[in-house]
Amino acid sequence: MSFFTALTGLKAATSALGVTSNNIANAGTVGFKRSRTDFGDIFATSPLQNASTTIGQGVALKQVTQQFSQGNVAFSANTLDLAITGDGFFPLKSPDGLQSIYTRNGSFMMNDQYNVVNSSGQRLLAASVDSSGKANLDELSVLTIPQKTSGQARETSLIQLGL
What is the pLDDT of residue 146? Predict the structure, then answer.
């Protein structure tokens, strides 16, 4: 029985090492969220035994959980790189328009149709904003940046600063 207990420990350590190596390998990946292993005891019980007096029979991997805590925000030279502070995801639409995707990776660029897309060609969705500044989150549409802007530029006439 002690051989089985030792084997469960080795198997659990192998699982933890796999998760740790995945975290290290993806440490430089934009938007990557690390994972954590959760373990639990194995108890050998039968209907005739009291579980509180039974000696543990090893360890088992209960689950691998993804950590959604805030990561570091780094500045880049790309004007379309975005970051989310706190909770939230960027909503994306697959290139065929059939699948909704959510990500924390904010590395974006423009495609030939002037849509804001990620490296996989998935298009960034944005909410429309009314004249009062309220966003309509019920209807998201593909974010398109027009090739030319219309209207005349005006200088700022009023600035308020509170310190």
Answer: 85
Buried residues in 92-118 as b, exposed as e (16+ CB within 10 A): bbeeeeeeeeebbbbebeeeeeebbbb
Instruction: State the chain's mean pLDDT as an integer.
Output: 83
Least Cα distance to 103 among 139, 65, 68, 138 occurs for: 68
**For 157-163, what is the mean pLDDT?**
73
Model pTM score: 0.59
- On the CB side of 97, CA atoms within 13 Å amount to 4
Cα–Cα separations (whole angstroms), residue 99 to 1, 93, 102: 50, 6, 10
Length, in residues, of the chain: 163
> How far apart are the C-alpha atoms of 83 and 76, rounded to whole Å?
11
CB atoms within 10 A of CB 138: 7
Paired strand residues for 31? none
Chain segment 124-151, per-residue pLDDT in tens = 999 888 888 888 888 899 999 888 767 7
> Which pair of structure tokens corresponds to residue 51?
């579980």
The structure tokens listed for 93 are: 């639409």
| Contact yes or no for 116/110 (Cβ under 8 A) | yes
